[in-house]
Amino acid sequence: MPNKWTEDSSKHFIAGGLAGIIEVCIAHPFDCMKTRVQIGQYNRIIECIKSTIKNEGLSGFYKGLWPPLIIETPKRAIKFTSFDFFRRAFCAADQYLPEWTRFSLAGLFTGLTEALLVCPFEVVKVRLQSELNIPRSMQKSWNSIALQIIRERGFGTNGLYLGVGPNLWRHGVWNSCYFGIYHNLRSFLSNPFSTENDQKIGLSFRLSIASFSAIIANLANIPFDVAKSRIQGF
């Protein structure tokens, strides 16, 4: 019989995978515009949007979609599973670590794990997003871009792992802030390990906490995100 940890991890894996697919499909146009502004192709987001519509059509907003779509499902699933693992590991040191530290450290190590997984896909995605005004017939596929990078630069920190440093900071800071803030705010109202108490809090309040935590996490990791985009947009 599977133990409770295995059952919980399986649920997190499935939930994370489904959430990842939905998030990528909704957020990718915003990510594409953000990346193009960050690497200096445009000075303003409005200018970027207008130029993309004029020169590439609506499909331009979805350039570079496949790399994050392919990796987002396992990435998000691993995020949930990893956080659950690290949270339980740091909870074993409950008498030594304050609560906010446990959740923040669990988020940090979750982010570092996530960053190593997604870096090659981020490199390919940014390369695709940085290509402007190229006719559809001449656009390269994501896998041909990946093979080109491997042939010319290899797998290391000049190739598929280009920008791995700021990528580690980016994911580490984001997850540390998000999970640390979310779980510690929630702990003011309930036991942070109780699903039953989660339900008593109410969905709207949990969504509010999650949104606030994500905003703070995004603000904290913007510098690392900009550095990553500029390094990878070679």
Automatic annotation (TrEMBL):
Pfam families the UniProt entry points to: Mito_carr (PF00153)
GO biological process, one term: transmembrane transport
Keyword Glycosyltransferase part of the UniProt annotation: no
Catalysis performed (reactions): 2-oxoheptanedioate(in) + 2-oxoglutarate(out) = 2-oxoheptanedioate(out) + 2-oxoglutarate(in); L-2-aminoadipate(in) + 2-oxoglutarate(out) = L-2-aminoadipate(out) + 2-oxoglutarate(in); hexanedioate(in) + 2-oxoglutarate(out) = hexanedioate(out) + 2-oxoglutarate(in); heptanedioate(in) + 2-oxoglutarate(out) = heptanedioate(out) + 2-oxoglutarate(in)
Extent of the Solcar repeats: 7-89, 98-188
Keywords linked to the UniProt accession: Membrane, Mitochondrion, Mitochondrion inner membrane, Repeat, Transmembrane, Transmembrane helix, Transport
Membrane-topology annotation of the record: Multi-pass membrane protein
Keyword Heme applies: no
GO CC terms, sorted: mitochondrial inner membrane
PROSITE patterns attached to this UniProt entry: SOLCAR
Described purpose of this protein according to its UniProt entry: Transports dicarboxylates across the inner membranes of mitochondria by a counter-exchange mechanism. Can transport 2-oxoadipate (2-oxohexanedioate), 2-oxoglutarate, adipate (hexanedioate), glutarate, and to a lesser extent, pimelate (heptanedioate), 2-oxopimelate (2-oxoheptanedioate), 2-aminoadipate (2-aminohexanedioate), oxaloacetate, and citrate.
Family: Belongs to the mitochondrial carrier (TC 2.A.29) family.
UniProt name for this protein: Mitochondrial 2-oxodicarboxylate carrier
